[in-house]
């Protein structure tokens, strides 16, 4: 066995930026993986409509199916890692498959095969990288609670750079240049992960002893509430995920992108959300910390409910804009205002939900439970493709009202689940 796998992270006291070195390694690995993922995703809907000549309804359905597929495979990838492969080997295999899939996109006849490769690779990669974050800290380390928010910044830093680099290359120089850049980003992420491996926590295969620490009754008591939360998140994501699907289609003709004598590439608009995540996260986390010091920090589900309600509000803003502007393109300033509300709301639900599932995972099942969180993303993305087919029949205003109603319903469901999850968290802390 590699010596690095036998070394506990507590034996490496050196830190970077006040955090364990392993968090920096995971942050950068995730940043480049998300650069790869979102770089390809920024081009996908336009590539299908403009180049492959798919109808908008069909392209949205394929987009939703693909986006759902990349969140279905992690449930198998997490299980394989916990029971057989180990987290590190799963990450290396998954990253290699994803890089290969991006390069295969250079061949039009292999379009669907490339999507399958990326989805399979993502299944091995996605649940196993974040499952290592918590293992970098002692259970009572005060930095542990905010570690997933820091990690989430890495996710969004990659998502910020991706449309600017891959989107520009794809729109200006050709689709395959953009897809190729996404593949290169995945290779960089793998290189960082391998070179920084000595700073990462050891793999912890599920053993009989670990299984004994999580008896069936306790497991069932946690799984049912998490399942209900996951179902509410499925509904939420069916509306939330339209930002890269139907919202991107609307932005191409519904937004005035003229700026300083040039037309802003439409893919650049997909960088607004991750840019704002990067800017707002320190303030949001600091606010939660101050609230916790006063004993007034909201529960995880309260935060998530407020986040879903905020996304609903952002879509209703777009509905009002569409109703008042008719067929006239709206200013990019209004789109910026939409993304400010949308992003602040996102910070209250997505990283919080990931941390919630990681915190309540039984011992020895960390990757599997985190994969279950991403399984909710599968259902939501798949459903988003179905929802996206109603854009043309309902018209822009009606469609944005529908998205507001969907995410608002998810907010109500999450808020109603607070008492049930409060009991589970109390039992877990006991």
Q: How large is the radius of gyration?
A: 21 Å
Shape: globular
**Secondary-structure element series:** EEHHHHHHHHHEEEHHEHHHHH
State the end-to-end CA separation: 36 Å
The CATH architecture assignment turns out to be Up-down Bundle
Runs with pLDDT <50, length 5+?
1-13, 207-217
The biggest beta sheet, please?
A: 2 strands, antiparallel
Give the domain tally. Answer: 1
Strand content: under 5%
CATH class: Mainly Alpha
Describe this structure in words.
- The two termini are 36 Å apart.
- Helices cover 74% and strands 3% of the residues.
- The protein contains 16 helices and six strands.
- The longest helix has 31 residues, at 21-51.
- The strands form three sheets. It has a two-stranded antiparallel sheet. Strands 3-6 form a two-stranded parallel ribbon. Strands 4-5 form a two-stranded antiparallel ribbon.
- It is mostly helical and 430 residues long.
- Helix 3 packs antiparallel against helix 6 and helix 11 (300-325) packs antiparallel against helix 12.
- It has one domain: MFS general substrate transporter like domains (Growth Hormone, Chain: A, Up-down Bundle).
- It comes from Roseateles asaccharophilus.
- Residues 22-422 form the Major facilitator superfamily (MFS) profile domain.
Index terms:
two-stranded antiparallel ribbon; mainly alpha; MFS_Transporters; 74% helix; two-stranded parallel ribbon; globular; 430 residues; single chain; Growth Hormone, Chain: A
The gist of it:
Residues 22-422 form the Major facilitator superfamily (MFS) profile domain. The chain has 430 residues and is an all-alpha fold.
């Amino acid at each position: 066995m590699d010596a690095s796998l036998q070394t506990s992270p507590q034996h490496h006291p050196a830190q970077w930026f006040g955090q364990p070195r392993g968090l920096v390694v995971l942050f950068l690995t995730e940043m480049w993986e998300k650069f790869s993922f979102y770089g390809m995703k920024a081009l996908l809907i336009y590539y299908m409509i403009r180049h492959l000549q798919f109808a908008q309804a069909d392209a949205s359905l394929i987009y939703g199916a693909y986006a759902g597929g990349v969140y279905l495979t992690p449930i198998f990838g997490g299980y394989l890692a916990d029971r057989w492969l180990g987290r590190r080997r799963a990450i290396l295999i998954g990253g290699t498959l994803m890089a290969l899939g991006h390069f295969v996109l250079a061949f039009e006849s292999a379009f669907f095969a490339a999507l399958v490769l990326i989805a399979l690779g993502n299944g091995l990669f996605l649940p196993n990288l974040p499952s290592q974050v918590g293992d970098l800290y002692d259970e009572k380390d005060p930095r542990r609670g905010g570690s997933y928010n820091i990690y989430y910044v890495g996710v969004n830093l990659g998502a910020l750079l991706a449309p600017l680099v891959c989107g520009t290359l794809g729109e200006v120089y050709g689709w395959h240049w953009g897809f190729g850049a996404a593949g290169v980003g995945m290779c960089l992420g793998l290189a960082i992960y391998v070179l920084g491996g000595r700073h990462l926590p050891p793999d912890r295969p599920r053993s009989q002893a670990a299984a004994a620490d999580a008896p069936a009754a306790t497991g069932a008591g946690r799984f049912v509430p998490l399942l209900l939360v996951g179902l509410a998140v499925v509904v939420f994501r069916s509306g939330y995920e339209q930002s890269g699907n139907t919202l991107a289609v609307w932005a191409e003709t519904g937004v005035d992108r003229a700026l300083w004598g040039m037309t802003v590439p439409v893919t650049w608009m997909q960088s607004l959300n991750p840019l704002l995540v990067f800017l707002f996260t320190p303030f949001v986390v600091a606010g939660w910390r101050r609230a916790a010091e006063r004993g007034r920090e909201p529960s995880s589900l309260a935060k998530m409910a407020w986040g879903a309600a905020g996304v609903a509000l952002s879509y209703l803003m777009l509905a009002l804009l569409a109703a008042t502007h008719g067929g006239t393109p709206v200013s990019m300033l209004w789109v910026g205002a939409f993304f400010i509300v949308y992003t602040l709301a996102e910070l209250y639900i997505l990283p919080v939900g990931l941390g919630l599932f990681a915190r309540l995972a039984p011992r020895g099942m960390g990757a599997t439970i985190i994969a279950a969180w991403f399984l909710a993303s599968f259902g939501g993305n798949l459903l988003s493709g179905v929802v996206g087919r109603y854009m043309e029949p309902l018209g822009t205003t009606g469609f944005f009202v529908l998205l507001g109603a969907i995410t608002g319903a998810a907010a109500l469901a999450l808020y109603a689940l607070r008492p049930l999850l409060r009991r589970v968290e109390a039992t877990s802390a006991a």
